Amino acid sequence: MTMSDPIADMLTRIRNANTAKHDTVDVPSSKMKLAIAKILLDEGYISRYDLIDEGSYQTIRISLKYGKDKNEKIISGIKRISKPGLRVYANTENMPKVLGGLGIAIVSTNKGVMTDKEARKENVGGEVIAYVW
């Protein structure tokens, strides 16, 4: 059976592993998922990610990040915005701010996948993929 929204599946796996306080989570690989994982790493929401070859397909192993003890979560929320049934786009003027700038919006633009802050700086709009806070 084919999956209708693989990005939502990735975000749900991260959210569930974070809630269950797991150290790592495995996600099937794609270029978009690698770009999202790179943004999460650059913004400090995860500690690292590795690309693992498993024969004919690749898997992204994401290492989740916690505070001093495991009760303190770095990712307090992650939400899919643009879905296959209802795409959400934003131009430079109405680019969303997550929690007044405390969180990030992941945006797919014609210059690549980037955060809302980078999209404002580059003066581009695009599809709002997810919010992370």
Structural class: alpha+beta
- Mean pLDDT across all residues, rounded? 94
Biggest beta-sheet profile: 5 strands, antiparallel
The percent of residues in helical segments reads 10-25%
What's the overall geometry? Answer: globular
Helices, by number, come to: 3
Radius of gyration: 15 Å
Taking pLDDT < 50 over at least 5 consecutive residues as the criterion, the unreliable ranges are none
Report how far apart the termini are. 32 Å
SSE arrangement, N to C: HEHEEEEEEHE
| β-sheet strand percentage | 25-35%
Count all strands and give the number: 8
Architecture overview:
Strands 4, 5, 6, 7 and 8 form a five-stranded antiparallel beta sheet that branches. The chain has a three-stranded antiparallel beta sheet with strand order 1-3-2, with helices on one face. Helices cover 25% and strands 33% of the residues. It is of the alpha+beta class and 133 residues long. The model has no long low-confidence stretch (mean pLDDT 94). The longest helix is centred in the first third of the chain and has 14 residues, at 6-19.
